Amino acid sequence: MSDTRREFIAAIDQGTTSSRCIVFDRDGRIVSVGQKEHEQIFPEPGWVEHDAAEIWANVQEVVAEALERAGITREDVRALGITNQRETTLLWDRATGEPVHNAIVWQDTRTDALCRELGRNVGQDRFRRETGLPLASYFAGPKIRWLLENVEGLRERAEAGEILFGTMDSWVIWNLTGGPDGGVHVTDVTNASRTLLMNLRTLDWDPRICESLGVPMAVLPEIRSSAEVYGEARGALAGVPVASALGDQQAALFGQTCFSPGEAKSTYGTGTFLLLNTGSEAVNSYNGLLTTVGYRIGDQDPVYALEGSIAVTGSLVQWMRDQMGLINSAAEIETLASSVEDNGGAYFVPAFSGLFAPYWRSDARGVIAGLTRYVTKAHIARAVLEATAWQTREIVDAMEKDSRVELTALKVDGGMTSNNLLMQCISDVLDAPVVRPMVAETTCLGAAYAAGLAVGFWPDTDALRANWRRAAEWTPRMEADVREREYKNWLKAVERTMGWLEEEN
C-alpha cells in the first residue's frame, strides 16, 4: 500500500490572464504552485480573444512546474481538478484538435447586437425562465453563433459533426485525456449553466433554445457533475484521474465550503462576485441577479446559487491612486480612511460604466454626493471603501428578497480582503460576520476538493468543512439606527447617478 502521507491532489486553474497548477495536501494546504501568463488579443475595440493552443501549451508547462517544485511525481497525485474562466468560448476540429478560431473571451462584446436581435419583442428575459440568465454578450451561446456565422464553412462542418465546442474546462479536459486520440468531450453543470443553452431544471441542453440560437447540438459536450472521474490523463500526469470541473466563481464557493443554504462567498478583486447557496432549488431572480448551478457532486442533487456582480470595487481604489493621485499605493487607502471617524457626510457611487446588479442601468454615471467644506481627502477615501460595502449590502438584500434565505455569514477572498477597515465596514453594513480563510486560493482549492471527493481522498463535505480554517473574522459594531440612516443616504446617492446619459447618446 502507498504511504498515505505522500498523496496529493492537483488543480489546474485556467484563468483569464494566466494558467496555474497548485498541488494541495490532505489538509488543503498549498504545497507548490506553477503559473504562466498568456497573451490578451484585442483585434477590435470591445473584442477580446485568447490563443487556445498557447493556453494548452502553458497548462502542460505549469503542471510540470508544480510537480517539480513539490518534489513529487504523477504517482503521488491521486486526482486532478479543473477550474476555469467562465463563458470563454472555443470551437475546434475533432480530428486534428486545431482551434478553428481564437477563443472568444467572456469580456468580449461583439455579440451585443446579436443579443438585441435575439431578444426580439421579448427582450433580455427571453430565455431567463429556462436558463436563469438574461440575454447578454457575456454568455457562451451567442459567441458560438457568431463563430458559426463568421468563420468560412464552419456551420456545415459543425452540422456534419466535425467540430467540437467547449468552454475552457472542456478544452483542457479533452486535451488532457488524449485530444484527437480518444479525448473525453465533457463539461460540468456549472460551466454549462453559463452558456444560455442549458435548462436549469433538467440539467441538459435545451433543444428549443439551441435551435433559437442557431447552435447545432452535435458540437456540444456531454454535461456531467462537477465531481466525478471523467477520464484518465495522458502525458506528464499519465494515469491520474481527471475528476472535477467547476467555473471559477463556483469553485470559490466550493473552496469556501459554502455547502448549506444561506452560506455565501464574495470574491473582492477588480470587480466583485457574490454567490449565495440556495440549496436544491433554482431560485428565479426578480431583482437583477443570475440563477446558476453552484455545484453537483456525483449523482447527488444539484445545489443552486444566486450570483450578483459589482463592476467597480478594487478598480475604484486603483482609480484613486492612478487618476486622482490621492494615494500612492492601494494599501495607503486604509491608513488614510482610518484617520477619520466617518465619511464626513460624503458618498461615492462608482457607476463608471453604469450600475450593475441589482439595477442594470447603463445610463448611470459615477457621483460623489454630500460634499461640504468639511470633507477632506480622508473622508473621500473612507467613502471609497464604504462604496464596496454598500454595493455588497444591495446585492445581499436582493438575494434575500429572491431566495427568502437569510445570509448567515459572508466568507470572503480576493485581493481586497487584506484591507481590515473594509472588512469591518462590510460586516457593519450587512449586520453579519465576515470571515476570511487561511488559504486565500479558494478557486483552486474548490477544484481540488471536488476532485478529491470524487476519488475518495476526502470522505465527504464534512471532512472539507473540518479543513476550512479561519484566518480572521469581523463582527458588526455599528448601531442599527446608524446603519439604517447611512444606507438611506447611500440609496439617495445612487438615485443621483441615474439618467445621466440621455437616450439619444
UniProtKB/TrEMBL annotation:
Coiled coil feature spans: none
Known EC number: 2.7.1.30
Chain sites annotated for binding glycerol: R86, E87, Y138, D248, Q249
Key words, A-Z: ATP-binding, Glycerol metabolism, Kinase, Nucleotide-binding, Transferase
Catalysis performed (reactions): glycerol + ATP = sn-glycerol 3-phosphate + ADP + H(+)
Pathway: Polyol metabolism; glycerol degradation via glycerol kinase pathway; sn-glycerol 3-phosphate from glycerol: step 1/1
Cross-referenced InterPro entries: ATPase_NBD (IPR043129), Carb_kinase_FGGY (IPR000577), Carb_kinase_FGGY_CS (IPR018483), FGGY_C (IPR018485), FGGY_N (IPR018484), Glycerol_kin (IPR005999)
UniProt-annotated binding residues for sn-glycerol 3-phosphate: T16, R86, E87, Y138, D248
Activation and inhibition: Inhibited by fructose 1,6-bisphosphate (FBP).
Single GO MF annotation: ATP binding
Sequence ranges assigned to domain Carbohydrate kinase FGGY C-terminal in this UniProt record: 265-454
One example of a Gene Ontology biological process annotation: glycerol-3-phosphate metabolic process
Cellular compartments per GO CC: cytosol
Class of enzymatic activity (EC top level): transferase
Highest rank taxon of the organism: Bacteria
Keyword match Transcription: no
Amino-acid positions noted as binding ATP in the UniProt annotation, renumbered to this chain: T16, T17, S18, T270, G314, Q318, G415
Residues binding ADP: T16, R20, T270, G314, G415, N419
Chain ranges of the Carbohydrate kinase FGGY N-terminal domain: 9-255
Xref: HAMAP family: Glycerol_kin
Function: Key enzyme in the regulation of glycerol uptake and metabolism. Catalyzes the phosphorylation of glycerol to yield sn-glycerol 3-phosphate.
UniProt family annotation: Belongs to the FGGY kinase family.
Protein name, as recorded: Glycerol kinase
Organism encoding this protein: Streptomyces radiopugnans
This protein's encoding gene: glpK
